[in-house]
Amino acid sequence: MFQHLRKLLGRDATPAPGGRREPQLVDRLSPAFLAPVLLERFLRPRALDRAVRGWPDEMAMPVVRLLVSQGHVAEASPAESFAVLCTVPKLQGLLRTHSLPVSGNKDTLIHRLLDAGVLPPASRPVYACTGAGRELALARQVEREAALQAAASEALALLQAHRVADASRVVRQVRERWPAFDDIALNFNPLAISGDTGSDGVVETALVAAPGILGSVSPEDLQRLRLAVAIWHLGLPRPGMSTALAGFTGSGRFDAQRACQLLLFFAKNSAQVRRLTRLGCSAAHVSFVTPCPSCAALERKSYRIGALPELPNPGCQGDGCSFIVRPKVLGMD
């Protein structure tokens, strides 16, 4: 699995200006590059197995050893370990086992156990940043936020000019240079770090979308929503969306978050209809999760692919009922 991740993230090395070779993603899987990413996970004490969840052991453990050897991470104190590993009922159970009182808050219970010489379970070690490690992790967070903010501003300017591929490149580069833990964790798509090229047409559609359900939104707010959805889909929701939505007045019936969701649903549905058309699908059904009366009226019908109703339903009487478009399969519908 680890080798598969390397293959997915690997790219040909290209010399940087001046002949210096920039580190590629394959190099960035080294402990030296991953250490600052993992360090932020220990800004508060964490059980080691939870801190590295999603990373294979052969990738995570060298990083942990490096952080410890650098003096940036150390085993947490017994009190911190108890606080992380044990709930109040579990602490009370330990106290009963040792014939100790069970009254008081969590801190009181922990110190009562420690005073009695009871130590936290050693099977799940807990680690936390040292003073030096905390300072380094916080400094990286500040640098990363500044880099993401600059990239968001650049990408949004490119999106305003409908230069989707260039905006995607900017997002990809900043996420490669400043990855978050979840960008690398294997329970996420490893290719997510490469960003979205907009090839599915969702971003392009979002940039010109005018869903009927958002008809009460002012033109200025609609443009803000378009940019927010585009940067969201490209993979830079924070701080891209907050930057795009600066000045949003909320003149429509939905708040900014829900309006963005509805516009994204509109763009994704438009892309899906185009995809079904290319695949030769001629008809489809629409179903809703918990439809309002207006949306319920659209169900239980077969629509020609080119005559599907606009979704989300402009006449929705709810909060924008969730919908699913299913292609009609001959012999099965």
SSE string, helices as H and strands as E: HHHEHHEHHHEHHHHHHHEHEE
Low-confidence runs: 1-26, 187-198
Q: What do the pLDDT scores average to?
A: 85
**What characteristic shape results from the CA principal axes?**
elongated
Helix content: 40-55%
Derived structural class:
mainly alpha
What can be said about the biggest beta sheet? 3 strands, antiparallel
For the largest sheet, list the strands in their spatial order. 1-3-2
Radius of gyration: 26 Å
Tally the beta strands.
6
The fraction of residues assigned to DSSP E strands is 5-15%
Distance between the termini: 40 Å
**Total helix count?**
16
What oligomeric state is this?
single chain
Describe the structure.
By secondary structure, the protein is mainly α. Among the domains are: 55 residues, no CATH class; 118 residues, no CATH class. Helices cover 52% and strands 7% of the residues. The protein has 16 helices and 6 strands. Strands 1-3-2 form a 3-stranded antiparallel β-sheet. Strands 5-4-6 form a 3-stranded antiparallel β-sheet, with no helix packed on it.
Q: Which key terms come to mind for this protein?
A:
disordered N terminus; 16 helices; 333 residues; mainly alpha
